[in-house]
Design brief:
This protein is an alpha/beta fold and 351 residues long. It folds into two domains: 266 residues, 3-Layer(aba) Sandwich (Rossmann fold); 64 residues, CBS-domain. The protein is 38% helix and 22% strand. It has 14 helices and 13 strands. The strands form three sheets. A six-stranded mixed sheet has the order 6-7-8-3-9-10, with helices on both faces. Strand 11, helix 13 and strand 12 form a beta-alpha-beta unit. The protein is globular and about 70 Å long. The chain binds adenosine-5'-triphosphate and magnesium ion. Adenosine-5'-triphosphate (ATP) binds next to strand 2 and helix 3.
Length: 351
């Protein structure tokens, strides 16, 4: 099932609009951007000694979705996150959050958006070492000026939510890495943000704890239904968590799509290399590989949105094609062993 089942195209609401954003670094960055605008080329940047951390990046983040930004180190992921959260200013292009243009917003408006609309989690946890775990989690509410009782009560709620009750008076250094990041997650949620930004939150954790935290993250999202921008350089993680993934390479977005779209139709070699190792059966849905409805279909229908891996046994066991039903129960296709086998063998779609 898609992680986000709430939004259809009819009720889709855009929370972040990112349009032709460039982020340039170097002494001449502003001057070069002013002179060439969106016509900047690699040659011009090289000649002028300007570094482009983001190059002509456009995308929308929709309400309720998990939007993952994925790419190798240095591809511009954190730069885009910093621009979206108002921590960095795009050199060119525009960024709107909930309809407010970050470039023209007043300082007060920006602060209000940052404090009330956005929650942030960082790779290195960024906890305050001289504050207890409880006070760390309550800290964003202190910045907002909330009363002590209120903020401690809320922080306790958040501690229960991430499974840390009982450790209120620990110092951050007395916790494991996974526990410290739970504190980071709890802290980012205390202000009830609409948009949750996470920059490689699990990269510093070992693989088992990392997987536990990914499950925990999905559990929280099922409860909270936030709109999420999640940065990672790990394609497995991206596929597990994302509704949609934007792949960045050298400051550019080279492809945006669902995990299934990226895996079935990678836009270039760079994307293909990431997708190669992912078992197709864990990503491809029945709908994508099914054939046409045919006469004489019998047996219990297979769900069109089921993952091929989850129904493979049933289809392979049946000697005949099985009917495929959509969410209303209507039969919309047929699936047979040959199509399933092609996916299981990572061969793509059987003709
Ligand atoms: N303040 C800065 N001054 C100059 N160059 C910068 C600055 N910040 C980022 N860059 C450059 O911009 C590029 C993109 O950096 P960014 O931090 O966005 O990458 P990233 O995809 O988040 O990488 P990582 O996975 O290592 O965190 C890099 O080449 C980096 O060196
Ligand atoms: Mg980064």
């Amino acid at each position: 099932m898609p992680k986000n089942q709430n939004s259809t195209s009819a009720d889709r609401q855009t929370l972040i609009e990112c349009r032709s954003v460039w982020k340039l670094y170097g002494e001449k960055a502003k001057k070069v951007a002013g002179k060439h605008g969106q016509d900047l080329t690699s040659d011009i940047l090289k000649e002028e000694g300007v570094i482009s951390a983001a190059r002509n990046v456009s995308f929308d983040v929709n309400k309720g979705e998990i939007f993952v930004i994925m790419g190798l180190s240095g591809s511009g992921k954190s730069t885009m996150l910093r621009c979206m959260t108002g921590l960095a200013e795009p050199t060119l292009g525009s960024l709107k959050v909930k309809g407010t243009d970050l470039a023209t917003a007043s300082r007060d408006e920006l602060t209000t958006i940052r404090r009330h609309t956005m929650g942030m989690v960082f790779q290195d946890f960024a906890l305050l070492p001289h504050l207890s775990v409880l006070d760390n989690i309550a800290f964003p509410l202190r910045v907002q000026g909330a009363r002590k009782n209120e903020r401690l009560a809320r922080a306790r709620e958040m501690m229960a939510l991430v499974g840390l009750s009982g450790r209120e008076n620990y110092w951050p250094h007395e916790l494991s890495g996974g526990q410290q990041q739970r504190v980071g997650i709890a802290r980012s949620l205390t202000t009830e943000p609409d948009i949750w930004f996470l920059d490689e939150p699990f990269s510093a954790l070992d693989p088992l704890i990392r997987m536990e935290m990914q499950n925990e993250f999905l559990r929280l999202q099922n409860l909270l239904h936030k709109s999420i921008v999640f940065v990672t350089h790990d394609f497995d993680e991206a596929v597990r968590l994302a509704d949609r993934i934007a792949i960045m390479e050298g400051g550019r977005v080279v492809q945006i799509g669902t995990p299934e779209e990226l895996i079935m139709q990678p836009a270039n070699e760079y994307v293909a290399e990431f997708t190669e190792k992912i078992p197709r059966s864990k990503v491809v849905r029945v709908r994508t590989i099914m054939g046409k409805v045919q006469a004489g279909l019998a047996g219990a229908p297979v769900n069109a949105d089921a993952l091929v891996g989850d129904v493979a046994g049933k289809v392979l066991d049946s000697g005949d094609p099985l009917p495929v039903a959509d969410e209303t129960g209507q039969i919309i296709g047929a699936i047979e062993a040959r199509q399933v086998a092609a996916v299981l063998m990572n061969l793509g779609i059987a003709a």
